[in-house]
Automatic annotation (TrEMBL):
Ranges of biased composition (kind: Basic and acidic residues): 1-14
Acetylation among keywords: no
The name this protein goes by in its record: ABC transporter ATP-binding protein
Pfam families: ABC_tran
Family in the record: Belongs to the ABC transporter superfamily.
PROSITE patterns referenced in this protein's UniProt entry, alphabetically: ABC_TRANSPORTER_2
Record domain ABC transporter: where: 33-269
Domain of life: Archaea
């Protein structure tokens, strides 16, 4: 790993093993990342803030896991604790089965990260030089993976800027260089904190596509934190949702989306006149009304039980329905609902 500048020294256990002490081999079956009982408190006394409390999760090799949560939920503290940049008070972190406190050098050998949309790229070096530099850190001959670099430059639309110093680039371009530098290395466990922050829509889509391709091609393990649910839904197999320092959900995106009943229904009819709509409003939570020609489409927030009440009401008013659609949950709705439930 190459982002060691801010790392606090782990002092909790024996420290790095000497070269003379052979470390136990990783059996290959352990998860890429295993976090167990992580706890971190900042400050002490009445000012103390427990940023992370009893956080446990694991990430299988080759999977992409999203770490979500509202502001202050503890995502960054969790990521920094995993990376050894923050020394946790309790808990263990294993990368490929290797304890990061016992053997940091070995554990972090194949880890790289882009934190808060940035990374320690060398601004005086050109884009291409940065890619070469960061890929040498793991002991790789950059010439042997030059094709990978060229492809990254091409796919992330950095080819025209490849020989310019990073400092001369726009913020969005610098961000793409950060991501390219992470992906240029041989790291197979990658942490991305807000990788698409501030990127335009097209760059964000390109970046996601390239990330998905690289994950599949290199069996990369990725933990990505983002407030952009489209990004998470697009690239993640699973999400870990945090709130107030704790994990409140840990499931596949598919299960989370299907774990909820319908969010609402849209009904379309030529019989939905002003009076019927006003009565509907009295009885149901109407979230949207759209008139087009002689037809009206009304969206009602209700679950499947409420749907029967809705159709019974419309029948009692002699409304003939032209169309009924379900309003499904997206990840943002699920996230907001789960966080709300926790706070109730
Ligand atoms: N160095 C620090 N000193 C004191 N408190 C801190 C420190 N770092 C984080 N905290 C506090 O710990 C809690 C969790 O913060 P953290 O940055 O991990 O949350 P987050 O989920 O990453 O939030 P965001 O989405 O806003 O980045 C917050 O209350 C924050 O104020």
């Amino acid at each position: 790993m190459t982002i060691q500048e801010n790392r606090e020294r782990p002092e909790r256990s024996g420290g790095e093993q000497s070269a003379a002490e052979p470390s136990p081999p990783d059996a290959g079956g352990s998860p890429a990342i295993a976090v167990e009982g992580l706890r971190k408190q900042f400050g002490s006394g009445p000012e103390a803030v427990t940023a992370v409390e009893d956080v446990s999760f694991s990430v299988e090799r080759g999977s992409v896991v999203g770490l979500l949560g509202p502001n202050g939920a503890g995502k960054t503290t969790t990521i920094k604790s995993i990376l050894g940049m923050v020394l946790s008070d309790e808990g263990s972190v294993r990368i490929h089965g290797i304890d990061v406190y016992d053997e940091p050098r070995r554990a972090y050998a194949h880890v790289d990260a882009m934190l808060e949309g940035a990374r320690n790229d060398y601004w005086r070096l050109t884009v291409r030089e940065n890619l070469r530099y960061f890929s040498t850190i793991g002991g790789v001959d950059p010439d042997s993976i030059a094709d990978r670099h060229e492809r990254l430059l091409d796919k992330l639309d950095l080819a025209d800027a490849a020989d310019q110093p990073v400092r001369s680039l726009s913020r969005g371009m610098k961000q793409k260089v950060s991501l390219a530098s992470v992906l240029a290395s041989e790291a197979d466990v990658v942490f991305l904190d807000e990788p698409t922050l501030g990127l335009d829509v097209e760059s964000s889509l390109t970046l996601r596509r390239e990330l998905r391709r690289i994950v599949a091609e290199r069996n990369l393990t990725v933990v990505v934190s983002s407030h952009d649910m489209d990004v998470i839904e697009d690239i993640c197999d699973r999400v870990v949702i945090m709130n107030e320092g704790r994990v409140i959900a840990d499931d596949s995106v598919e299960n989370l989306l299907h774990g909820f009943d319908a969010r609402g229904y849209r009904v379309t009819s030529a019989d939905l006149d002003e009076t019927v709509v006003a009565d509907l409003r009295d009885r149901f939570e109407v979230t949207e009304i759209e008139r087009s020609g002689d037809r009206t489409r009304v969206e009602v927030a209700t679950d499947s039980d409420g749907f029967y009440a809705l159709t019974a009401f419309l029948r009692s008013r002699d409304v003939t329905l032209d169309a009924v659609e379900t309003v499904d949950w997206d990840l943002e709705d699920v996230f907001v609902e789960l966080t709300r439930r926790e706070e109730r």
